[in-house]
Amino acid sequence: MRHVVARVEDVPPGTMTRVEAAGRAFCLVNLGGRFHALVDRCPHAGAPLSAGRLSGVVESDGPGDYRLCRQGEMVKCPWHGWEFEVATGQSWCDPRRMRARHRPAERVAGRELVRGPHVAERVPVSVEGDYVVIDL
Length: 136
Ligand code: FES
Fold this sequence. Notes:
4% of the residues lie in helices and 46% in strands.
């Protein structure tokens, strides 16, 4: 069943908002003019993702060298800071694995290192005229 959840003009590019459809809450994100919707419940402990903030990805080629990329493509949970990729729902952080321990060191691609174990649930979104529609 399709639900009109917002007017396009009310969610400008680079912003997100909480919307409701069929008694459920969703985190609606306008990523560069393309809309995405995540169930508004963090898979870690249930925080509303729409109360978090949009962020990017820090990339580095070595110590002391870093840059912020893909700005707005990640949503950061307001409770514990886990980050989820807006387009896929994939988590890119698992704080339970971030305790300091002695480990053997090896060189791996950054994405292998930070991919988290959780995926935020996504729902299909479309734009019809001036309205954003979620299909449940
Ligand atoms: S509830 Fe979202 S990171 Fe903990």
